[in-house]
Design brief:
Helix content: 25-40%
Shape: globular
Largest sheet: 4 strands, antiparallel
Radius of gyration: 21 Å
Distance between the termini: 48 Å
Structural class: alpha+beta
Number of strands: 8
Length: 190
């Protein structure tokens, strides 16, 4: 903004490169409450208009996994991902009348539901019911966690991984990043 023209920006970049004067990237202090970004404020506001428990901003998904699955590696991958990304540990309590960003320790558990004893046609109906329920389950922004992940066991080599995450901590662009990291972590742990 200090160099609003292309010529001014070009000169600024040239001087910056010559002098190596880029400011260092420093972590934000966690000693004081963090403020919501503008976009988070919008999501929080609209959530409050819906009574504080709305599933409108849920970003649900389901992955069918066929073949041998290492559930221990899946759990380790999930825990590592949550530990690696603060947004997956974020909630938005109200402090002195203002919503703030609170980053918690990892309190997430991979839920596992065994559907192996059901006949195939009943399994599919139950999977669809669980997918729908998961997508419609609202998150409490003030408490968290703001996502769910559930493994449905259909057979020895057949699973469905359900996930739902509130848009206040996640966007569509991040989905590929998250899935890529999850896949790399799973391969490493297995």
């Amino acid at each position: 903004f200090e160099s609003p023209t292309i010529a001014g920006l070009s000169e600024h970049l040239s001087q910056t490169r010559r002098g190596n004067t880029l400011p260092p990237i420093t972590p934000v202090s966690r000693n004081a409450p963090l403020l919501l970004s503008f976009t988070q404020q919008e999501f929080w506001f609209f959530n409050q208009l819906e009574g504080g428990f709305s599933a409108l901003d849920n970003m649900p998904g389901a992955l069918r996994l066929e073949g041998r699955l290492d559930t221990e590696a899946l759990e380790q991958s999930f825990q590592a991902l949550v530990q690696r990304h603060e947004n997956l540990r974020t909630c938005f309590p109200i402090v002195k009348g203002t919503p703030v960003v609170q980053i918690s320790e990892n309190r997430h558990q991979l839920a596992v539901i065994n559907l192996q004893n059901l006949p195939p046609e009943q399994q599919e109906l139950e999977v669809q019911r669980l997918v729908d329920d998961d997508a419609q389950r609202p998150f409490a922004l003030s408490k968290g966690p703001l996502f769910n992940i559930t493994l449905l066991q259909l057979g020895v080599e057949s699973h469905v991984l359900l996930f739902s995450i509130d848009h206040i901590i996640f966007d569509g662009w991040s989905a590929n990043v998250l899935l890529s990291e999850f896949s790399m972590l799973y391969n490493a742990f297995s």
